[in-house]
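Practice record 12: protein with TLP.
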Amino acid sequence: MNRTIDLRSDTVTLPSAEMRAAMAAADLGDDVYGEDPSVSALEARAAEMLGKEAGLFVPSGTMGNLIAVMTHTRPGDEIICGRLTHTYVAEGAGAARIAGVSVWPVSHEQAQLDPVEVESGFHPTDDPHYPRTSLVIVEQPNRGWVMPLDNLSDIACIARRHGVPVHMDGARIFNAAVALGVPAREIAAHADSLMFCVSKGLAAPVGSVLVGSAAFVAQARRARKVLGGGMRQAGVLAAGGLYALDHMVDRVAEDHALAQRLATGLRELGWWIDREVVQTNVFFTQPPQGLDLAAVVAGLARTGVQVASPYSGRTLRLVTHYGLEPEDMEEALLAFGAITPATRGSAA
Ligand code: TLP
């Protein structure tokens, strides 16, 4: 095998020569003074694409979500979200630690939230025993599953009825938009604020954008400063994000096709796939009974295929992305095929 086939995440993507050229040529200024034209251009373009008034460039998706929580809530409040929400499981409990809010997790199946559970997560507002529920977080997509628009709409309606805003972790919102065949702004319309990453499937090196109303973003800008996320000549990064929004959005359909091919091939090899239909660029899989996951990971690594199990357990997450080609899927499947009987032999 000539090179590594990295299926751990779409965060491993590298910028193309054209994106690097755009970054090198970016007009720069001090963004903490609001004087970086490339950052301002990315923020405006992101807001326009998501149908919101304003945007805020932040170093990471984690910081974007935390800023949203800090801006929508007060310490001692509570947020409702699905129990598989990235903010709840994989952001170091920043909402609790830094924003000072508790989380009311509800069951989370194939990206969907149960409206009955969400409704009952709101406590009586006049009873001092309970925290004030001040935010609902949805994630679109979640672990490769697209949240159906009717479920999203139901959850948003419940939140609105309670006078509570909705924040959307749309780290991979454009994967969801392409999978659903709708403009991203149609999905974003259900949320008051949304964070998406340019550093994942869109293949820019660094950064995320938080969008919402002008008043929300003005407050969010303060929270970003508190967290040390005010970056100076960040236009060199933002230019990569702008290039990504102009050139890398529609092509994520190619990543979805690669993931579908990989899942089909693995199923033929006897691997369990966590879904019938792979909708985006992410799915989860388990080796046939008797195969030790750690041995599989090590065996694949020896053949140049990198895989990971980011949420622990016996399940691997496979992610396709820019930089991988159809022939890489065939190569990876050969590696999976080779390691499967070998590992079974050694584990027996
Ligand atoms: N997710 C990472 C890991 O943390 C698992 C990955 O490789 O997918 N929201 C969602 C839905 C995410 O998947 C991630 C990153 C984030 C937020 C956080 O973004 P970053 O890594 O930029 O802080």
